[in-house]
Specification:
Length: 186
């Protein structure tokens, strides 16, 4: 099929509904749509962060995070009642463990944190902090969903660890860019 015959608009959502994977239609403000939509937003901000840092271990690691977030988003966008459970690869604890190892690696190169820090100093630092805060919101939206609908607890664990990763990455990028932590002064 050529792009000339394919259209991005279907008009299926013009009345405020969308389809989950599995076919069931829900309102666009449904808690499930809000959860996977916020993960999608996080994924986009991660793309901005990825594109703003130089080639190296951190950039490669963020590419992996983008893959993980797409998988998480896919699980969240799947109707648990009307879809095959193994439609996508499983989410497992190893995903969060990978983040923990990277947090530890980055943290070894950082000075001890003695003050609150501001999310500024360099554009890459600020981008990492935006990822951190959007990640926390995604975690809250997924928790909202899991209050009423079943879900994989590894998603919550991963998002919780991912926000920690972005905090440590922001500090690492501040050091790498020669600005250090910008301390909050009371």
């Amino acid at each position: 099929m050529s792009n000339k015959n394919w259209k991005i608009y279907t008009k299926q959502g013009d009345k405020g509904n969308t389809s989950l994977i599995g076919g069931v239609r829900v309102p666009k403000n449904h808690v499930r749509v809000e959860a996977y939509g916020t993960v999608d937003e996080l994924k986009s901000f991660c793309g901005v962060l990825h594109d703003s840092i130089k080639e190296g271990i951190e950039k490669h690691f963020i590419r992996g995070i983008l893959q993980d977030l797409f998988l998480i988003e896919s699980h969240l966008a799947t109707d648990p009642e009307n879809s095959e459970p193994k439609f996508f690869p499983d989410l497992n604890a190893e995903m969060a463990e990978k983040l923990e190892k990277e947090i530890d690696r980055l943290n070894e190169e950082l000075p001890e944190l003695a003050h609150f820090i501001l999310p500024t100093g360099h554009s890459t630092v600020s981008a990492a902090h935006v990822c951190r805060t959007v990640c926390r919101r995604a975690e809250r939206r997924v928790l909202d969903l899991f209050e009423t609908d079943k879900g994989n607890e590894n998603i919550i664990i991963y998002l919780n660890r991912l926000s920690d990763y972005f905090f440590v990455l922001a500090r690492f990028l501040a050091k790498e860019n020669g600005v250090g932590d910008v301390v909050w002064k009371v």
